[in-house]
Write a structure and sequence with these properties.
It is built from 10 helices and 15 strands. By secondary structure, the protein is α/β, with parallel strands linked by helices. Strand 1 and strand 2 form a beta hairpin. The radius of gyration is 21 Å and the shape is globular. The two termini are 13 Å apart.
């Protein structure tokens, strides 16, 4: 049986993806289910996180968001039976690649898949859905009437976040990194209150957000990374991101800033500004759900809600056409280098 794995170099910065023969254990654990994989989504591999958690190995399994059919269940499994259709996210310490024909996974890492949702659609949405719930529910407690700013709203995560915010009755503002992305977001329904194109350098994000909120500021900011300093060495994409001072300035009193910038540094004046506004800063890391067994029930509830909203049309992801398994290495290299915007899904 073949799977996709990441081969790390000595520097751990240069990575190579390979198709490797692998075997799964013959004995099924008490709470494990054996799943025949029908579709697997590819997401960038966080090498630094694996290193911090001491999960590095010579071959790191790739492809964690899976959808498939249950073939067999362990003796103590209570949630599933053979022939059930399921979707889930393999844990960070999983030994098998999600692109294997068959994987073993604990029953607490998968939920039932709705019948009318396709394999590729559910596999390509589950992780972005969990990430959006983490940002809007767990970290910022979105409610009706809030104003939410989603940076890079045309990304797969951004689209789902916009749709979830609209579902809860929030007013949504969004930035884009190109004219094409702006045109795409302006066609979304429900309508986004303001789409701000950052690619031409003409829009002043702080000014626009304060104008849209009557000078009160934005209640929730979900960023896609921020600029820490103004330097000429930044990449073209990085230069399009807002500066950390801009986000602090546009936050409302009592606002919530949810950041994906793991290396964010705040100077004392920045902290003072957040203090004066009574604002909060949270770091978005959806992997924390598996860091404590106490969070497992909430994690399963979130995944169930994601697939339910996908089934009833609340979530309408924008995915590329699925690619075959033999294109997996090339597709994963593009995903890792962030050369593609939409999620690649392998249909097995």
């Amino acid at each position: 049986m073949k799977g996709l794995y990441c081969k790390l170099s000595e520097s751990a910065e240069q990575v190579r993806f390979v198709i490797q023969e692998t075997e799964i254990p013959n004995v099924l654990g008490s709470h494990c289910v054996k799943v025949q994989v029908k579709a697997c989504a590819l997401s960038p591999l966080d090498i630094k996180l694996l290193k911090d958690l001491k999960l590095q190995r010579e071959l790191v399994p790739v492809g964690r968001e899976i959808a498939g059919v249950v073939l067999e269940v362990g003796p103590k499994v209570t949630f599933f039976q053979p022939d059930d259709e399921v979707v889930g996210i393999l844990p960070l310490d999983a030994e098998a690649s999600g692109l294997c024909d068959v994987v073993l996974v604990h029953e607490h890492h998968v939920v039932r898949k709705p019948e009318k949702v396709s394999w590729t659609e559910v596999a390509g949405t589950i992780r972005d859905g969990v990430r959006s719930y983490t940002a809007l529910h767990t970290l910022s407690h979105v409610t009706a009437g809030n104003t939410v700013l989603v940076l890079d709203g045309a990304s797969p995560f951004g689209i789902i976040t916009i749709q979830l915010a609209h579902y809860h009755g929030a007013k949504v503002l969004s930035t884009t990194l190109s004219v094409e992305d702006k045109q795409f977001l302006e066609q979304l329904r429900p309508t986004i209150a303001r789409v701000i194109n950052m690619s031409d350098g003409k829009a002043d994000l702080v000014e626009v957000c304060l104008e849209e909120t009557g000078g009160l500021g934005v209640d929730i900011v979900i960023d896609a990374g921020v600029r820490l300093y103004n330097t000429d060495e930044e990449t073209a994409i990085k230069k399009l991101l807002p500066h950390k001072h801009d986000i602090i300035m546009l936050l409302a009193v009592g606002g919530h800033w949810v950041t994906a910038e793991e290396g964010l540094q705040l100077d004392p004046p920045d902290s003072r500004s957040l203090f004066l506004k009574g604002a909060t800063l949270s770091f978005l890391n959806e992997e924390v759900w598996n860091a404590s067994s106490a969070c497992q029930g909430k994690y399963l509830h979130i995944m169930k809600d994601v697939v339910e909203k996908l089934s009833n049309g609340t979530f309408r992801p924008q995915l590329e056409d699925p690619v075959p398994l033999y294109e997996a290495t090339v597709s994963m290299e593009m995903v890792q280098k962030k050369q593609v915007r939409k999620r690649h899904v392998i249909h097995l």
